[in-house]
Specification:
The structure is a single chain. The protein contains 13 helices and 13 strands. With about 325 residues, the chain is of the alpha/beta class. It has two domains: about 140 residues, Rossmann fold, CATH 3.40.50; about 180 residues, Rossmann fold (3-Layer(aba) Sandwich), CATH 3.40.50. The strands form two sheets. A seven-stranded parallel sheet has the order 8-7-6-9-10-11-12, with helices on both faces. α6 crosses α8.
């Protein structure tokens, strides 16, 4: 079989691999870093590459059953999913094939929460509009909205959701949140939040922030019916996954004014298509799926991914007991 080989398709590690190659090479592990021209590799590209890797460190690249089967038929021993989300991985197929899959949760709770609050602050005070107008020689005074006294509703009270709650509470907001699991009272008290049913978040929130994982159960969680039950003038922020929002329904809610503004770091199709009607709304603030994109967060997640990959190849394998296996 020859030299062990780690395939790196995650963009963040792909760009910075030179910082970590010596660690891998010192254990006889070769790095395979194909050129990444887009946001992620295609299914065809993954199908071609993955049988020749012992471990793959992947980002949002497609990892469906066919791709995993091709990997298993080749050299693949396991996968590291850089980051938190694992919706691109067919986890039941990985389990059936005996391919362990690990992700790296908790690496950028603060960073994604910071970005969520950035959207809230910007949309509440129209910062992006003022910047645009000043650059155009205008001096527009927009009437924004105060955050203190408003209700922030957070969907998903994991690490990112709780850090987002902490920041909202620091701005004097009442913070409620929903989750599919019960969160301990002490954890919520520490960040100034209270867990309530999803319907209460929908009904009572002035600002709704999505910070949950994408699952088959919450696909298009925010749809036309849910938008209709929100307060008129609600602000919606999504730092989770694009498909949690039905974008067609959001476009309708923005057009009617029922949703006053939206901060979207993620979209159903990424990059956002040039023909998307969302582009017509100047009360929207767009990102590039970049919640984790700080130098510090990327470095710590890159390092964690490398250590998991080495552990799966038998180097200090005891650390796997402390890592998060998802399949």
């Amino acid at each position: 079989m020859g030299e062990l080989q780690v395939l790196v398709t995650c963009g963040h590690l792909n760009r910075h691999i030179k910082l970590y190659e010596s660690r891998l090479h010192s254990h006889g592990v070769k790095t395979w870093v194909p050129e990444l021209k887009g946001q992620q590799f295609t299914a065809v590209e993954m199908l071609e590459m993955i049988p020749h890797a012992d471990i793959a460190i992947a980002g949002d690249d497609p990892l469906d059953a066919e791709i995993l089967m091709a990997g298993k038929a080749g050299r693949l021993k396991g996968l590291v999913r850089w980051g938190i989300g694992t919706d691109n991985v067919d986890k039941p197929a990985a389990t059936r094939l005996g391919l362990p899959v690990y992700n790296t949760p908790g690496m950028f709770n603060n960073e994604v929460a910071d970005l969520a609050l950035g959207h809230v602050l910007n949309l509440s005070r129209h910062i992006h509009k003022m910047d645009r107008d000043v650059r155009q020689g205008k001096w527009t005074r927009y009437e924004g909205g105060s955050l203190s006294g408003k209700t922030a509703g957070i969907v998903g009270l994991g690490g990112i959701g709780r850090e987002t709650a902490r920041r909202c509470a620091a701005f004097g907001m009442r913070v409620i949140g929903s989750d599919v699991v019960s969160i301990g009272a002490a954890s919520l008290d520490a960040v100034g939040a209270r867990q309530v049913p999803f319907d209460v978040v929908v009904r009572e929130s002035d600002i709704i922030i999505l910070a949950c994982a994408l699952t088959p159960e919450n696909f298009h969680l925010l749809n036309a019916d849910v938008f209709s039950r929100m307060k008129r003038g609600v602000v919606v922020v999504n730092v989770a996954r694009g498909a949690i929002i039905d974008e067609t329904a959001l476009i309708g809610a923005l057009a009617s004014g029922h949703v006053a503004a939206a901060g979207l770091d993620v979209f159903e199709v990424e990059p956002l298509p040039s023909e998307s009607p969302l582009r017509q709304f100047d009360n929207c603030l767009f990102g590039t799926h970049s919640g984790s994109s700080t130098l510090e967060a990327i470095q710590r997640t890159n390092q964690k991914s490398i250590e998991i990959a080495l552990a799966m190849l038998g180097v200090n394998s005891d650390i796997l007991a402390t890592c998060n296996r998802v399949a």
